[in-house]
Specification:
Layout: H1 3-25, H2 37-50, H3 52-55, H4 60-63, H5 69-77, H6 79-82, H7 93-107
Helix pairs in contact: 2-7, 5-7
Length: 111
């Protein structure tokens, strides 16, 4: 192998390594938090199954007034850290997304 061929191979390998590092370090996209009718219905079902027994008598809409679905999604993932009396959310990520959409819709117009 000539010196030029070795340098070309080394350059290609360096570019490949740099690309692999860049792809590994790229931020992951946020999950879809679109308020479709299906997501809202699923979020309501999740709320009734996992939240209503404690939050049935609490005016939760006022507490989540102005929350975006993204904020609700983040909060659901950190419940014990944000509110020490709250248990962790034990549901699928799809349930978490739907619940976030439902909570943000619940808080719309509540001031």
């Amino acid at each position: 192998m000539t010196r030029r061929a070795r340098l070309a191979a080394l350059a290609v390998a360096a570019v490949a390594v740099a690309l692999a590092i860049a792809l590994a370090a790229a931020p992951r996209g946020r999950p879809s938090l679109v308020g479709t009718p299906e997501a809202l219905a699923r979020g309501e079902r999740v709320f009734r199954a996992k939240c209503l027994h404690c939050h049935g008598d609490v005016p939760l809409a006022r507490r989540v007034a102005g929350w975006t679905a993204e904020r609700a999604y983040d909060a659901i993932g950190r419940l014990p850290q944000l509110y020490p009396v709250m248990p962790e959310f034990h549901g699928s990520d799809e349930d978490r997304r739907a619940l976030a959409v439902y909570l943000s819709a619940m808080g719309e117009g509540s001031d």
